[in-house]
Design goal:
Distance between the termini: 34 Å
Number of strands: 0
Number of helices: 11
Helix content: over 70%
Shape: globular
Order of helices and strands: HHHHHHHHHHH
Largest sheet: none
Strand content: under 5%
């Protein structure tokens, strides 16, 4: 039961956090966002873009505009900006906050639909047997790390809530994670995302980006 609950927790967290940390999310299609949700989503995007702009130097902003106007994708263009370690950290923090805000405006049903789409995208990448093995190893390692930061009481509470049919952010909110736990959770997911990215080929990463754009 504990393993299954942690697997559900991993699925919830990866769905919300595994987006490219250097991409500002567009409105997800086919989720039937309400007018209010669409407005909130665009407000978050505008706020995020402004925050990203603020951490770039004038020279980096100009270089970025030049590269994107030449047809380069945002992700490749940002790599050429030679961000400092401080800028990279700030970028991750901005995107983590943005993704959480976006997740908060979705209903449980919409989050479930979004998760299903993410899973479908990953299944279409035609991972090799070696990649699948590596992927599962990363998942197992991540689940173990998450388990280690939850207290026995939180683990028990999580199992109780999920057995009652509750999922997603509602469960996470009720666990009352400390600031230290939240920080640890972010660090775990950052490391996990990087490991996942490292096992994908450039072609697979491009395929995943195209699937996201099409959707």
């Amino acid at each position: 039961m504990k393993r299954r609950s942690l697997a559900i927790l991993f699925s919830i967290i990866t769905t919300i956090l595994f987006a490219n940390p250097l991409t500002v999310l567009a409105q997800p299609k086919n989720l039937n966002l309400t007018p209010e949700q669409k407005t909130q989503w665009e407000e978050i995007r505008a706020q995020t873009k402004a925050q990203i702009q603020n951490i770039l130097t004038p020279e980096q902003q100009e270089q970025f505009q030049t590269l994107t106007s030449q047809g380069q994708r945002r992700r490749k263009a940002i790599k050429q900006l030679n961000l400092s370690e401080e800028q990279k950290t700030q970028m991750r923090e901005i995107m983590q906050s943005s993704r959480q805000e976006m997740a908060n405006i979705l209903t449980e049903e919409q989050l479930g639909q979004f998760r299903q789409r993410v899973v479908a995208q990953l299944e279409n990448l035609n991972l090799t047997p070696e990649q699948k093995t590596q992927w599962e190893e990363i998942r197992a390692q991540t689940k173990a790390q998450i388990q280690n930061i939850l207290t026995p009481e939180q683990q028990e509470q999580f199992q109780t809530l999920t057995s009652q049919g509750q999922r997603g952010r509602r469960v996470m909110k009720q666990l009352n994670l400390s600031e230290e736990q939240k920080t640890q959770m972010r660090e775990i997911m950052q490391s996990s995302r990087q490991q996942i990215a490292n096992i994908l080929t450039e072609e697979q990463q491009e395929q995943l980006r195209q699937q996201r754009q099409m959707r």
